[in-house]
Design goal:
This protein is of the alpha+beta class and 445 residues long. It folds into two domains: 20-60 and 116-281 and 329-444, Outer membrane efflux proteins (OEP) (Up-down Bundle), CATH 1.20.1600; 64-113 and 283-323, Outer membrane efflux proteins (OEP), CATH 2.20.200. The chain is built from eight helices and eight strands. It has helices at residues 2-18, 26-36, 38-59, 117-184, 190-225, 257-277, 330-396, 402-436; strands at residues 22-23, 64-73, 79-83, 93-97, 102-115, 233-234, 283-296, 309-322. It has a four-stranded antiparallel beta sheet with strand order 2-5-7-8, with no helix packed on it. Strands 1-6 form a two-stranded parallel sheet. Helix 3 (38-59) runs antiparallel to helix 4 (117-184), helix 4 (117-184) packs antiparallel against helix 8 (402-436) and helix 6 runs antiparallel to helix 7 (330-396). The longest helix has 68 residues, at 117-184. Its main location: membrane.
Length: 445
Amino acid sequence: MNKIIIIFFLLFAIKIEAQEIKLLTLKDAIIYALDNKSEAKKSKLKVENSTYQIQEARSRALPQIFANGSLTYNPVLQTTVIDGDYFGQPGTMIEASFGQKWSTGAGIILTQNLFDQSIFIGLKAAKTTREFYQINDQLTKEQVIERVANNYYQVYVLRQRLILVENNLKTTTKVRDIVKGQFENGLAKKIDLDRMNVNISNISTQKQQVINAVQLQENTLKFYMGMQIDTQINIPEFEFEIKPTVLTNDLNKTNRSEYLLLKKQEELLGLQKKSIISEFYPTLSLSANYNYIGQGSELPWGANSDDDVYWSNFSSIGLNLKIPIFSGFRTRAKVKQADVQLRSIKEDVKNTQLLLDLEYKNATTQIENSVITLQNQKENMALADEILKNINNNYVLGLASLTDLLDAENAYTTAQNNYTAAILDYKLAEIQLIKSKGELNTLIN
């Protein structure tokens, strides 16, 4: 029995430890996502793979050496008919069988490209491809950072909204209790108490909806972080502080990953065009081989001339020159296609430059409007709070109606929700502004 109790407490302790709440700052969330999210991991693997692509391209410029071997058995040798004049037997035909029943050989072959323009271009293209994947890795990181930051702030706002709903429920419950006491003492009507109960029921329903929204948004954040869904997280208050944003006009579009990626693609397409043009160039290579062959009426392995098996060797060294003359205009057509692709991506570059300008302009406009809205909503919430306190005091003194009190409560709740929504809009606009300046990495510095 004691063992069972001990095991129970151990399992309970493990469960409590597993449910330990993790304090999660925005920086922590982003770093966790960059280390665990599959998109970030895959982009790193592409960079790693580009190293092997360079090695593959370099291998074409290095000597290629391989060995070969063969064993052949000829059950029936082919007979060739020869004019007897060649053997001093004019007017006759001689049937002769050439070759041996058994033959085996082994050799080694070396080839070395001496001049092939496509090899050098291919090596440069492989290095450029590595640079492309490095930029793509940076772009992927920025996309992960943006998604995590947006969802992080949305979780916080929903949690703040839940706090507001809970406070509103407590306040309304206190008022309901006052109305209930008045009703029991004959100072209030039953309809007033019913209205308060309906109001509490509506707020309770709203609270449950917000709780559900918080859970869904937290799950979404954990997904974008690559975190286990059942992990408990806590977002500290200071992460939502509003800091002044300095707006400048010194936008540098050339440091944006989207732009750099397109320029690197343009460079790759230029190398692809050069690689196709290289098909017009001649190629020169060196080849050498050495072979050892054995033939006889018996299996040559382990046999010699005493067994009617004869061994010999041969080798050769040569230069191979290949000069393209006519390919049916195939190469020229491929060059034209590559040129069209180059012109197309140049248009993409121009369009991206305009898009980056648009993003920055919209982000600055949004941040300016968000600052104004935030200030207005903050003042509006303070005013609604003051009105609610005054009407609540007047209601207790019998100087205000229940309708006035409920309207004031609804106005204050609306003002609170508008203020938290304004904070979220500001933080999301701040993320877009940081992104438009190409500075998302500053969120983890």
